[in-house]
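Project standup — Tuesday

K.O.: blocked on the structure for the chain from last sprint. Re-posting the sequence here as requested.
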Amino acid sequence: MTRMALPAPRPFTVSPFVLHTLLLMLMISGPLTNESLLPALPALSMDFDAPMTRIQLLVSIFMLGYGSSQLVIGPLADAVGRRPVLIIGLGMFVLASGAAALSPALPALIAARFVQGVSISVAPVLARVIVRDMYDQQRATRLLAYLGAIMALGPGVAPIISNFVQLWWGWRAIFVALVVIGGLLGVSALALLPETRPRSDIASETRRHVGHTYARLLRHGVYVRSVLAMMLLFAGMYSFFVSLPFIVNRLYQQPDARIGLIYAVVVAGYIVGGLALGWLSTRFSQRRLLVAGFGVAALAMALLAGLSVLGLPPFWLLILLISGYTAGYGMLVAPLTVRVLGLFPHQTGAAAAVLGCTEWLGTAAISWLAVQLLAQGFLPFILLVLAALASAWMLLSRDAENA
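H.V.: unblocked you, prediction finished:
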């Protein structure tokens, strides 16, 4: 049966600057929620008289809810539209954050964190889908590159700000701040975002079983390979993020005060890569952009692996090469995202859901393995990241001519 052409999405009535700012805040809300709690973990351990191994559940349970719920959010957004799913999810997030702020015991806080992860996952998933609904491939790639570059500030800035918040007012104030942020996002989405999913697709998707949609996605070889490649690339970058404190303190004996600065330098690499992609996306094909991104990341990791054979590389060179990897990742994430979502224009929400779920759950497993290898030595850790990068290239190389 011939597929009907997608009607043009409903035009936005707000300025591009306001719209893009709102989409940026939606994209950044998930990582901000997770990483803003990291500085407060020692205080939580003291307040609840619990070991750090149990307190770490507050991070892992959030990632579990954040990743797994996207399998439901995507098809639901395809069925009933982007706007209602987004607004209801943000409402749930406000309630969960309020419950977390009032939690009398650790089990209640853990439960609230799970609901936080489930509910806030609607924001970054649907923000990417809305961009793909609105624009053609080239414009969507360019916008996602710029938004992604700015979004990278979130993981670097959130722990710094939340650390001051919990020092001045206690860890519960972090959740109060998240209530305010979630409320502002919900009101803004309600006032500014119209529905972008074409009506014809809403009507058709309501009659389609979710399982059939996922079966169709998972039978598409290019889609599956692209999703797995994006997960491996994200896992490599996130492995550096979760391991940097151990690397700085244990391997290089650097003071804690330098950790924030090092995170800023590494995040700056991602920002530079995203900005470079935004500039290059109008001058080169998608295939050349992918080759360039992989080349930058592979060169950085190959040099780091070679130096690690001889021992620990100089500290400044280590940070520079890690930043090179994050710059390469910054050049890859936007074109790959647009490519993945563009394969299924009638099931964009479901395609984004599988992508997000795979990225977060796969990254949780790989980054855990990376930390275990780092305890055995720096070289095994780097070889794992390099293997993930090489595997991602192998998954994509057979389809490179269609990128």
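K.O.: great, moving the ticket to review. The chain has two domains: 16-208, 214-398. The chain is about 80% helix and 0% strand.
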